[in-house]
Each structure stands twice: as C-alpha cells, then as structure tokens.
Specification:
The complex is a heterodimer of chains A (249) and B (561).
Chain A: E1 5-9, H1 16-24, E2 35-36, E3 39-40, H2 45-51, E4 52-55, H3 67-77, H4 82-95, H5 111-123, E5 129-133, H6 141-156, E6 161-165, H7 169-175, E7 178-183, E8 186-191, H8 193-203, H9 220-227, H10 231-245
Parallel strand pairs in A: 1-6, 1-7, 4-5, 5-6
Antiparallel strand pairs in A: 2-3, 7-8
Helix pairs in contact in A: 8-9
Chain B: H1 2-24, H2 35-65, H3 69-73, H4 77-108, H5 122-135, H6 138-156, H7 159-190, H8 198-219, H9 221-237, H10 247-250, H11 254-264, H12 268-271, H13 286-320, H14 339-352, H15 359-375, E1 380-381, H16 383-404, H17 412-416, H18 422-437, H19 439-450, E2 452-453, H20 461-481, H21 488-492, H22 503-531, H23 534-559
Parallel strand pairs in B: 1-2
The chains are: A alpha/beta (249), B mainly alpha (561).
C-alpha cells in the first residue's frame, strides 16, 4: 500500500530475495503473477521497473564505474531531469559520506560503501515502490540510522511504499507497519507486530496441553521462531553443541 | 615444499575463479544463488581457466619453436642468434600477456584473506603466494622452456649450449613474472584509480590504447615473426659494420642469443670479415665479451628481480598491496543524456577501466596498422586487394561485437532492474562496434589515394561495406540475445544472456554476421565478373547493403522490444 513499510522476515533460503527479485523483474516466477500499482510485471515490465527502486543484497553494481558515473547512467536511463538529479545527489551523497569515493571505481569500495551507492541510486527517481534486500548489510551505525530514517521519510512524506527484507528483528520492529514471515517460499504469517503476537500465542500449546496465555511483551524474534516452528530445532541444536563442545567438568 | 605447493593450488584456484568471474560479469559471486548454480559456475570457470591456460601453452610452445625453423633449414650463426632471441621474446610475451589476464584479482589480495587466518609463518606464506603466482603461467613457462632447450639440443648437439638455453629460459621467466606484476601494478594505480581530471583521462586512454595494441598483437605474433625473422637475421650480419650494432649484444634476449651462438660457433667472431670502410675498428674479442658480460649482468638482475618479486607478492597477498590514490570529488554534478547515448558512454567507460576490454580502444589503430602491413605488398590497389583488406577489417569488428556482449560485468543484474528495453542495449553495442570499423574505409581511402588505384570506384567499397557492417553488428548482437519466448518479461530479460557465455549462440551469431558481410562483397564480385563494370557492381553492392540494414532493423524491431 502507498505509504506503508512492509518488512519481510524469514530464515536463510526461505525465498525473501527471490520474492523481491520477482517483483523487480529479475527472476521469472514459475507460476502466478505480480502486479505493481495495478500493472502486471510480466506484460509491462518496463513500466513497472520505472516505478521501482531496487537495492540488492550484495550490491551487484558496475564495478569499473565510479559512483558519479554510475549515478549518471542510472539517472539517464530513468530519464530524470538533470536539475532534479543534481539536487538529489548533492544532498544524498554527502549525507552518506561519499565525497572521498565519488570518483573512485566501485570495485575499490568496501561493501558498506557500495551499499550506500546502491541506496542513493535507488532513491534518485523517487520510486513509488522501494525494494530493499537486506539494505543494512555492511553499513555502519550512522549509515544504518540514515537508511532507517529515509525508509520512514520515503513512506510518510513521498507516500511511496517500501518492501524490505532483513534479518535484524529490531529494525523490523522499529520501522515496519506490517511484517510478513516467509518460510519455504510461503508467507506463513502476516500483519502488524500485535497481529503476529496473537497468532504466535494461538498456536502455542505447552507440553502438558495447557494453552499458554498470549505474551504481550514477546519480542519479534520469539514470535518469529514460534511461527516458523524453529524453536524446537534451536533447542536441539544447542543441546547437541553443548554435548559436543562443552562438557561439564 | 609439497604442502606449500598444495596450498598454493587452492590460492591459485581462487585467483583464477575470481578473475574469470570478474571478466565474465559475475563479480564476486552472487551469494543468493543456489548451491547448484555456484557449483556449476565454479566448474565452468575452472574449466575455462584450464582451457585458456592449455591454449596459451600450446600457442606459446609453437611460438617458441617457430623462430628455430630457419636455423633447422639452413644452420648459420645469425639464424641461431635470431632464433634464440625471438623464441625468448615470444615466450616472454605470452607469459606476460596470459598472467595479466589473471592478475586482476591477485593484485587485490582478497583471494589470500582466508590463508592469512591459518597458522602459517611469514616466510612460508611468501612461498605459498609466490608458488600460486607461478601457477598462473606454469604450463606456458614449462612448455616453452622444454621446447627451447630441446630445439637447441637438436640443432647444435651441444650440452653446454642446451644448459645455457635452460638458464636463459629461467631468467626469461623471472623477467616475465616481474614485468607482469609491475604492469598490473601500474595499471591498477593509474587506470583503476579513477579520477576525472584531463590528465587522468588522457593518461588512461593512452595506456589503454598501448595495452590494447599489445593484446591484439599477441594473436598475430606468427605473422609478425615471419616478417621480423629475415629482417633480424640480415641485420645481425650487418651488425659488425656499425658500432651502434653492438648495442644489440647488451640487450636481452639478444645477449643470450649471441652467447649461445658463440658456444656453438667458437670462431664465430673471428671468422666474420669487417668491412674496409669501418670507421671504428672493433676488436674481435669485444663482441663475445660484451655478450657474456651482459648475460652475467642479466643473471644478477634476474636474481634481484626474483627477490623483489617475492617480496612484492608477499606484500600484496598480505593486504599491503598497491596503493591507489583516491581523487577527492570537487562537486557532485551529473551530466545526463538520453538512454542510448548513456548506455554507449557506460560501455566505453567500462572498457576504459578494464584491461581485458582495452582492445576496444586499440582496435581502430590496430586495424589501420594491419591494413598498412597487408597492402604494402600491393603496388597497385585493385578491387581484389581492396576487398581482402576490407574483409580483414570486418573480421576484427565482428570479434569486437561478440566481446562487447561481455562488458556488463557484475552490473548486469542491476541493469536488468532498470526500465531498459533490450533494443537500447542492442543498438548501443551495435553502434560502438560499427564505429570501430570507421577507420577501415578511411585508412583504405588514404592508402588507395597514395598508391595507384585501378578505379576510383573501388575506393568506395569499404564505405559501402560500412553499411553492411552496421547490419552485421546489429544482427549479431540481436541474434545472440534473442529471447526464448514472446512474453514481455522474457523480452526484457533477454539480455541476461550476456551474463553467461553460450558458445553455441555466439558461433551462430558470428556466422550470421559473416554471411551479412559477405553477401554485398559477393554481389560486387559476381557483378564485376560478368560485366567488368566497377560502377554497376558498386551500385548493386550499395543496394544490397542498404537492403540488409533495413531487413535487420525491421526484424529486430519486430522480434525484440
């Protein structure tokens, strides 16, 4: 929905990146369809891509280009007005501390700096839908805070929608309006944090069959583990590690 | 040492894999790819690395043996000197050139990051790193050395000469290793460092042109050798008439050639008569003395360079590598263009920062040089000579076309997320490739005007072929990226084919390009054969080329959106 921040959570290999790539038109779905702002991405991919800003998980960019060259390329392909582009990049680049790297090849930049370049490029055309795949990967505290604030601003002020995947539960808790939990390629639960807490408590039955009361202070991590049925796996793994490495003396 | 060799294998595989991924456009690898994809990509990359290494080893072996043919046919001291010298020069060139394809990721030091976490002391780490560097060219060096030593044995039956040749080959390899490392350092410091100042841009362009010409020359080394060998052999004979010729004795690899020849022909210098008009009398003991002294000097130099190389390798692999200067941006201004010019500029910029794409800038210059060499043997420019020369230029351009498909690098995935139509990409690459052909008609016009042309009309043949070249480039690229399916999504993703290297598709595309190019030439030839009229033949050739361009444009617009 416009103005909404949707967080996608899931264990490794659940399909978060794949889902985001399908929406971005990078991967063809084996079945089903995707519509962005009422347009089917299979029949009108160019229009859909013109409305999307995409930040990939591992910043696959043109490594031989400098950030300046890269922004020129992206802004030209997106047909952004020169004055608008210069104004935006003039504010975003210093905000992300890109001055020392602006004319250096992207290949020479750290992972975090590349991520910043990717984020700036995604914001230049004020996308209606911002797709962020693990956007805080490799970012320092300052840049992480800026990204979180920009996500919120983009949704509230520009009325754009944001869909991002993350492993960091605290970020999802702080920033997201709605959260979707994906597991083995399927959305197993969806809703606000409160909705998810309720769902988690509904399915929890303790060992002697007594339904537990819903815990209003459960963290998103606890809710997540319950909804993906990974609590038992974790307990088993920790027990096995304990037996293997940490023998009581 | 055995353990060090095994460890160096792991490091070398990482270096080779990363270099191939970088040149193919898959960057550092996509962590979100499935396990099977990664395994497949690894196996394909290592297969490519091995194939490429073996191919270079075979070419290097033949190249190293080739110069000895003259001495095998007619053994003379000068043939032996030029054979040894050229053989060493060729093996050095092949080792340096091949190593430079692999060294990009070596220079970053990243492949050795894991090794640094192991409990290996500094000395052992240096040995492992040096051995991994040697592994980049081990086949080429070993085959070239064996061929050189065996050739000398077969030609001279002298154990001392053969041992001397072995020593010369080892010195040559050390020079090659040091040169490759130094060149990659220069490249990454001055080219990959970036910067938009005029000095940086001009410097980068010049470096790329020289680099590209050298790269293209490697492929034509046999042609150059067959031109050089007789020239060199006769130059050596005349050497003693001029004191300046003694400079050759001091230069590597000629010093080695002279030294070996003196071992095989002990009375070599005393038997050569000095011309009566020699201004400065050269004592007969001087030339061999200079050759042996130079050889000793080169042995010492090889020792120093070898140690320095090991030290550099150790620094690079431990992360103290090449320091790159970062230019600080004075402003953040962007210069925007419409999508097609923006895509062209992007490709040209990618090529300007990547040594494996440097030939793009050098191709026009190299085409002109090649055409000049080819046409020197024609006293009069006839239609046949013009056509042959034009076809040679066409050959280069179609090769450039297919290689442009691999310029995308790791950014291809990002490009697929942009609102880019496949047609823009195809048009951009076809235009770049066609532009590299433009110097061909201009050069042939200049050559035709400077020589006597059998008809003025034949000077226009390459210009007409330029139109066919446009059609061929468009057809070649469009055919390669043609989508398998009609859905718009498949269409928009069709250029994802550029991420891989589908050899079958590539060969089909090349075949299509050659057919498009040869049809107008065939029309000209057949019309001229029947009518003996250049004007009519050219006119029909022009109509054919224009028709081809229109047809290819029409088909690509219909099939690819």
């Amino acid at each position: 929905m416009p103005g909404e921040i949707y967080g996608l959570l899931g264990p490794n290999g659940a399909g978060k990146s794949t889902l985001i790539k399908i929406i971005a038109g990078l991967v063809e779905p084996t079945s089903g369809s995707v519509a962005v702002l009422g347009h089917d991405s299979a029949t009108d991919p160019v229009w859909v891509k013109s409305k999307i800003g995409y930040v990939s998980e591992n910043s696959m960019l043109y490594e031989s280009l400098s950030p300046r060259d890269f922004f020129e390329f992206v802004a030209s392909i997106r047909k952004i007005d020169q004055k608008v582009a210069n104004e935006k990049v003039g504010r975003l680049a210093p905000a992300f501390g890109l001055e020392p790297f602006y004319d250096s090849p992207i290949a020479t930049l750290s992972m975090g700096t590349r991520q910043k370049v990717s984020i700036v490029a995604a914001l230049l055309h004020e996308p209606s839908l911002l797709l962020l795949d693990e956007p805080l990967n490799g970012l320092d505290a300052k840049a992480s805070r800026i990204v979180k604030d920009i996500i919120s601003l983009h949704a509230r002020r520009s009325n754009g929608a944001v869909l991002f995947s993350t492993h960091i539960m605290e970020v999802a808790e702080q920033v997201c309006d709605r959260i979707g939990i994906i597991y083995s390629g399927k959305i197993v639960a969806e809703g606000s944090l409160e909705d998810l807490r309720r769902k988690a408590s509904e399915i929890t039955v303790n060992a002697i069959g007594i339904e537990q009361e819903s815990n209003a202070t459960s963290t998103l991590e606890e809710v997540f583990l319950k909804l993906t049925h990974e609590e038992d796996d974790i307990a088993g793994t920790v027990r096995a590690l304990k037996d293997a490495f940490y023998v009581d003396k | 040492m055995r353990e060090a060799w095994e460890l160096s294998g792991a490091a070398y595989r990482e270096v080779a894999y990363r270099s191939i991924q970088m040149s193919r456009g898959q960057g550092q690898g996509n962590r979100s790819s499935g396990e099977q994809d990664i395994e497949k990509r690894f196996k394909t990359s290592m297969g490519s690395a091995k194939t490429s290494k073996v191919a270079f080893a075979v070419l290097g072996t033949i190249g190293s043996a080739f110069p000895f043919i003259e001495d095998a046919v007619a053994p003379t001291p000068e043939a032996l000197i030029s054979g040894v010298s050229l053989s060493l020069a060729i093996s050095l060139a092949y080792i340096v050139f091949y190593s430079l394809q692999i060294l990009p990721s070596f220079s970053s030091g990243e492949p050795y990051a894991i090794l640094m976490t192991l409990p290996i002391d500094e000395r052992d780490f240096s040995i492992v790193a040096t051995l991994s560097l040697i592994r980049t060219f081990d086949y080429i060096a070993a085959c070239a050395t064996i061929v050189q030593v065996v050739s000398i044995w077969l030609l001279t039956h002298s154990i001392i000469a053969s041992l001397f040749m072995a020593a010369a080959a080892v010195i040559n390899i050390i020079f090659a290793m040091a040169l490759a490392l130094w060149l990659s350092g220069i490249f990454y410091k001055n080219v990959s460092g970036g910067g938009r100042s005029k000095r940086a841009t001009v410097g980068r362009s010049l470096f790329l042109i020289i680099w590209g010409v050298a790269a293209l020359s490697i492929g034509f080394i046999f042609n150059f050798v067959s031109y050089l060998l007789p020239f060199l052999t006769s130059a050596i004979l005349g050497m003693f008439a001029r004191p300046t010729g003694l400079v050759l004795l001091l230069l590597h690899p000629f010093s080695m050639g002279f030294a070996i020849a003196n071992i095989v022909y002990p009375s070599l210098y005393s038997s050569i008569p000095l011309p009566s008009r020699t201004v400065l009398l050269i004592p007969r003991f001087l030339p061999p003395l200079l050759a042996y002294m130079a050889t000793l000097g080169y042995i010492a130099l090889a020792f120093i360079l070898g140690r320095r190389t090991i030290s550099s390798v150790s620094k690079i692999t431990r992360g103290y590598g090449i320091k790159m200067s970062r230019p600080i941006a004075k402003d953040f201004l962007l210069k925007l263009r419409s999508p097609l010019p923006a895509y062209i500029v992007k490709d040209l910029r990618l090529a300007s920062m990547n040594p494996s794409l440097a030939f793009l800038y050098a191709a026009p210059l190299f085409e002109v040089i090649t055409l000049a060499v080819i046409t020197v043997q024609f006293p009069v420019m006839r239609a046949t000579a013009m056509i042959i020369s034009t076809v040679v230029g066409c050959f280069f351009t179609t090769m450039i076309c297919s290689t442009l498909l691999n310029t995308e690098g790791a950014g291809l995935e990002y490009a697929m997320s942009l609102p880019l139509v496949a047609r823009t990409i195809i048009d951009a690459k076809a235009l770049i490739a066609t532009l590299t052909f433009v110097p061909v008609p201009l050069a042939l016009l200049a050559i035709g005007l400077s020589k006597h042309a059998s008809s003025n009309y034949i000077l226009l043949i390459p210009f007409v072929e330029l139109i066919a070249m446009g059609a061929a480039c468009l057809g070649e690229i469009a055919f390669y990226v043609r989508p398998r399916g009609t859905s718009a999504l498949r269409q928009s993703r069709s250029f994802s084919l550029m991420a891989g290297s589908d050899i079958g598709r590539l060969l089909e595309s090349l075949a299509l390009a050659f057919i498009i190019l040869l049809i107008p030439i065939g029309i000209y030839s057949s019309t001229f054969t029947q009518t003996s009229g250049h004007a009519l033949s050219l006119y029909l050739m022009l109509l054919t080329a224009c028709a081809e361009l229109l047809i290819v444009l029409g088909i690509t617009r219909r099939v690819i959106r």
